[in-house]
Structure prediction request, 192 residues.
Amino acid sequence: MVAVGPLGGLGTLPPPSLLVTDMKPLILIFSVALWVLAGCAATPGPDDAAATPNQVLAGDDSSGAVHWGGQIVSIKNRRDYTLVEVLALPLEGSGRPRVDGKSGGRFIVQRQGFLEPHEYAPDRLLEVRGQLDGFIHGTVGDSPYRYPLVQGEQVILWPEDAAVTTSPIKPRVNFGVGVGTYGSGVGIGIGF
Prediction:
């Protein structure tokens, strides 16, 4: 190929294969940058804007989906279902209740079937996803208390050691390998 140079002189362009080869480092750098940025993306966690049991009580709205958790206070097995009283705590990104968090009230989880009281013992950490289904009247000590009732669709009992530890922020590391028309690449992403 023939081209006109910057001063009007004739020159030649490099062959197209050389132009593509010169772009490989640029494509690799761009790919690595994308992987790093993707690794820094936030992982979806519990909805921080979700109402706490205390807020549900104050607003008197007993419908809608919730994702709550906390420490088990007591458990009562009935004929066809189980009621679990829970002291509400904020949830970590993983969904595990934070024992160092401020309580957001109390609530009752109703779960069909039998739950073993030895496993669902007081102070164990519980996470629940379900639908609000009205209120239950009870007592805390000698004081009357109105509990939001959650029909537990998904109930997670966290390991016992989770009740005594708090997890610091841990980085997530992602690795990626790609193969394309013009070569291959490796990416590493680190997020907090």
Q: What stands out?
A: The longest helix spans residues 16-39. Helices lie at 16-39, 53-59.
